[in-house]
Amino acid sequence: MSLKKITLGDVKSFFKNHGRKIAEKTGLVLLVLVIVTSVCLGIYSVSAYSNLRITVDLNDERQTVQGFGASMAWTFQRLGLEGTDEVKEKSIEMLYGDSGLRLNIARFNIGGGSLDSNLDDVVPYCYDWFDPDRRAESFFVAENYLDADDATLKAAFADENNYDFTRDAGALEMLDMALAAGNIDKIVFFANSPHYLMTVSGTCTGAEVQQNNLKEEFYEAYCDYLLIIVDNIVKEHLSGLENVPEVVISPVNEPQWDWGGDGASQEGCHFDPEPLAAFYDVFLDKLEAFNDANGTSYECDVLESGNYKFYIDRKDIKEYLEAMSKYDYFDEIEYISAHSYGADDSKKHREKYQNYIDKNYPGLGISITEYCEMESGRYDTIESGLLLGNVISRDLTMLDAIDWNWWLAVSPCDYNDGLVYWDVLEDGSQKLSVLKRYYVMGQFSRYIENGDIRVGATCSDLTGWANLDYSAYKRADGTVVVVIINNSKSDKNVTVGGLGDYTKATVVCTTAEEQSGWNEVETVWSGKVALPAQSITTYVLSK
Known about the structure:
CATH class of the largest domain: Alpha Beta
Shape: globular
Number of helices: 11
Order of helices and strands: HEEHHEHHEHEHEHEHEHEEEHEEEEEEEE
Helix content: 25-40%
């Protein structure tokens, strides 16, 4: 087959005969694009700038919020031992005190014994990649049983005489100080790994990635271990309090992650869905029997999934729920716990998760027990702060989370994982510092109290182009709290409706500007609010 050579004359002839039609069609396409663009810009202008209105429906009751917290992991054991009295007292006030975040949930880490000196030269602890602060002390006196057989070990873990509760003294001292601040009403005792003498690898990480590291024959021993530790801490540190906090035990943390092999840098234990479901069957039976025998009312925090995202290439929360749903205990579970890693402020991941739950496990609640911004450095920016604000707001409003917890309460690291940062300077002095996220966290934790009920709220900006996040809560005494985040780089004027009976407001705002605390302004409530660009504002309303 031959191809005809196209000449310049052919091109001229083509456009002479067809050019007008091409021009007409091109013009029509351009006209349509102009109209569509104009309409979109018009809708955007209306949505983003004109007559924005948020309507609160106090009769539309959603979840009861149980509060806010953070983890007393890793740093707390060293801070309690090496921190100055001033630094320790100030850090506790900043987190749990009335002048600070007023956190009411404390998450106490039960170490797996990786700090034992006999493990110093053992992989992975001997490698540079294993952070020394992530090695945790255990109350179990393991040195007496290093060469014991399984039967002897099981009996030893069930005998409280084999535990030394003078250990982990730094963390316990910080716990006592936090309890003395007076705001804690819930303690979650969580473990990243079982004690290393119960594991397949013999360490608090797997020898291989995704290794089911808790020996099946030690399921009951691990239950005994946790119950003895928690019960002793409760008796020694909580029983004398005027208001004893609720006690929750979380035996598993982020079961789907690898937790093993090269690069493992902290205590962690992988569980496949079926072994994890079988373990909870044992633990919940043991917990119920313990409560019946001892007159206690300890509860179990189930799952602590690394996140609530769905994956193609790894096991995810769907498979764990499916495995647990085959057991009778699953019908008694009111909520599971999960972390917001990977989801960050994504609406898509939250919608996908909640649609799945509504379809398959209606009524199953969720507790958000951990999150941090997983980036190196310390981002003292309003963008980083508002990321946290959006994560909290969307977990509360899109997932109906019953509580919300940040990861490390105190961090010494050059990493975005702390609420309060503790630094030991070259001259030996110590200082504490915070980033913008600390103040954003306080916009929620200082003003939304345990027992507040989230209520429905809608916005006239149906497209979301105004870039607002918002939520509303009511208390038994009639107080209403409204939190509004303006993510855009322009100021917004908003009318808040549905609250006509309210006349007084305490207004607190965090912006990009420097601030040393939450400046509370008392004002008359009119329903008309001005939101600074890139800000989060909390309104506490009364009649």
